[in-house]
Amino acid sequence: MTTDVTKAIAPKSDQLNADSLITGPMTIRIRDVKVSDGEQPIWVYFDGDDNKPWKPCKTAARCLASIWGPNAAQWVGMHCTIYNDPTVTWAGAAVGGIRVSHMEGLDKPRALQLTKTRGKKGTVTIQPLVMGGKADPRFDPDAALQSAKDAAMKGKDAFTQWWRENADKREAVKPHMDELKKMVEEADKPDIDDDEVPL
Questions:
Q1: Cβ neighbour number for residue 171 with a 10 Å cutoff
Q2: Alpha-carbon gap, residue 163 to 176, rounded angstroms
Q3: pTM of the prediction?
Q4: What Cα–Cα distance (Å) separates residue 156 from each residue in 31, 57, 169, 182?
């Protein structure tokens, strides 16, 4: 007979909520994300969710989008750690809420300036999350830099497109922007036919 009371004290709800995390943080692997209209437009399904999705608040959703990019399809397969923040308020009362503490795709802590309450911003720091002893290969810094270089060698349009589509990899390539800009400039130089070179 088990002595674990986690299931017994779990709230009766059709979604994951803060009370589900009163026994401690949870690291989840995202298996699906659905986006719709309404007050809770983002539904994040994860392994072992018992079909009770996590519906992140705007602060948590902005953390996910800032680091993994706005295309929620890219979140699938990624891990993050969520926890119950008892300081979250609603209508002036501390009711607790689900927040994100760690995410895959980072090689160092990332400080985000996000709107926490109406008209007020605050710093949210997300810590790196490493699964299985190594970072997810989709977010390997060397691989990210190489893909940026490949785009830069095709010129400004190609690199601009890469930048827009890879928000999650920008931090890894920012220290190399001078090199990337030179590659873009070199790629965009007009080709000069030898026959057109004046003697």
A1: 17
A2: 13
A3: 0.61
A4: 35, 36, 18, 10
